Amino acid sequence: MKKSALLVIPLALFCVLIVFLFQGLFSDPRTLDSQAKDNPVPSFELPDLMTPTRLYTPDVFRGEVTILNVWGVWCVTCAVELPFLTHLKEAEQVRFVGLYFDQDLDPDFGTKTLSRVQQEVISMLGRFGNPYQFNIFDVYRDTSLDLGVTGAPEHFLIDANGVIRMHHVGDINERVWANKIKPLYDVLLQEKNKPLAESQGGEL
Question: Is residue 98 included in any domain, yes or no?
Answer without folding.
Answer: yes
